[in-house]
Give the backbone structure.
Amino acid sequence: MRNKINKYDIALIIVIIAVNVFILVYGSFNAVEKGQKIAYVYSENKLVGEYTLTDDYKTEFSVDIGSGSYNTIHIEDGKIWIHDATCPDKVCLSQGKISNDGELIVCLPNKLLVQIKDNQETEDDIDIIVK
Ligand SMILES: [Zn+2]
């Protein structure tokens, strides 16, 4: 009778399995996350959005900076670019698509900045000030 597995033993086994599965899933989740590119969108030096660039993520949105001015940003195939803008020089449009760590797009007239960083560096403060 003493060797019989009781419900507490079963509960303990389930907990051990659950913890192992959790460590396994959490570990692989971290591995997948590592090295991902995040696009940070700044308007007038304030972070207004961050987007993980993956091959299957697609979106388009506008950053409204008031007075009818805006930048339309497009994300597709792991790349981000300015699709449309009200700025007079259109320099941001000509900067094209970016997808690598450290690359950036700047729109000086609209005080907009898009920068890509690896997710390991999210703690870093932005060191470029658009005036
Ligand atoms: Zn521009």
